[in-house]
Amino acid sequence: MSWFSGLEAIVRTDVPLRDHTWYRLGGPARWFCQPRDERELARLLARLRDAGIAWRVLGGGANVIIRDEGFSGAVIRLASGAFEAIRFEPEGVVVAGAGADLPRLVRATLDHGLVGLEALAGIPGTVGGAVRMNAGGRYGEIGRFVRLVRVMERDGTLVDRSASEVGFAYRHSQLAGCVILAATLSLRPGDAEAARRRHRAIWMEKYGSQPALAARTSGCVFKNPPGAAAGRLLDQAGLKGTRIGGAEISRRHANFIEAHDDATAADVLHLITLAKERVRAATGIELEPEVEIW
Ligand code: EPU
Question: Of 185, 173, 19, whose CA–CA distance to 102 is shortest?
Fold first, then answer.
């Protein structure tokens, strides 16, 4: 009997993860699990625990690099309706499921006359992924708006964590090791038209300075080190256009690595190592990846 007997409807084996990431690179997940509600998720976690199987949660796949050999454990994805709901409550409170698409959430809040999230224009991914890594850019981070995060712990218990417990910092939260289920955000009513214009302006700015939307990237590769911009350091090290196999450091913005048709995940990872070494040699600064490498 397999560890997932009775859960066949939600567990598939050897599923290519490339189909679930923006990079479209990398190998399969040994198991790919899509629970349909919290009860099923709790059952799944219990089975994985009993079987001693490692697991990870995949959001929108916008900020991960999957190695060519894939992931030998279970990947959990919260893509059913129960995890994607967005609910509006009085006084600017919005509860968004972890599986909800972040750009959809941003648009929905503007449609409800709530302002704030327009600062996140142009950031892809799911609400869960964005909360986990405190996604953001020059105009703000999601953590600033989050009041509560509902998570399922490894043992299946449900817990509401306050923003201070979550410990949002630059591209960081203390939400590893649990499954994020939903976030409660606090926004304010305001001039939705002005917010829409700001949304549009930020979007245009990003797509004027970053690789085309159609390009295969995982967003910024490195975090900005304190007091410096990773993009500028990489650019000054002469790395724009550097290529290994099918991976190339963007000529538009040096903190992006584009994958061409023939790219492998190994090409991207080698280029990350090379870029890091060049910047270290030129400046002594140790760049840290922002992308997750699985
Ligand atoms: N720069 C260069 N050469 C380059 C790229 C940038 O000289 O090739 C210079 C720019 O001219 C600018 C500075 O470096 O003076 C910073 O660049 P930019 O304004 O593009 O912002 P960033 O710090 O590189 C951050 C976020 C982005 C987000 C933008 C805009 C990080 C690591 N990156 O980029 O987020 O889109 O601000 O809000 O915090 C991401 O997280 O995946 C991401 C792309």
Answer: 185
- Cβ 202 under 6 angstroms from ligand 1: no
Q: Which fold has domain 82-195?
A: 3.30.465
Residue 91 CB neighbour total at 10 angstroms: 8
Rounded to an integer, what distance in angstroms lies between the CA atom of residue 89 and that of residue 153?
Answer: 26
pLDDT band at 3 (very low <50, low <70, confident <90, very high): very high
The class level of CATH for 11-76 reads: alpha beta
Q: What distance in angstroms lies between residue 175's CA and the mean position of ligand 1's atoms? A: 25
Averaged pLDDT, 27-33: 98
Domains 11-76 and 211-289 share a fold: no
Digit-coded pLDDT (tens) for 214-253? 899 999 999 999 999 999 999 999 999 999 999 999 999 9
* Residue 196 pLDDT > 90: yes
Q: Is 180 in the pocket of ligand 1 (CB under 6 A)?
A: no
Identify the H or E element spanning 267.
helix 265-283
CB of 72 shorter than 6 A to ligand 1: no
Q: Please tell me the distance between residue 211's alpha carbon and the centre of ligand 1 in angstroms.
A: 12
Q: Which of 232, 234, 251, 283 to mutate to test the pocket of ligand 1 (most atoms within 8 A of CB)?
A: 232
| Residue 59 burial (CB count, 10 A) | 28
CATH of the domain spanning 211-289: 3.90.78.10
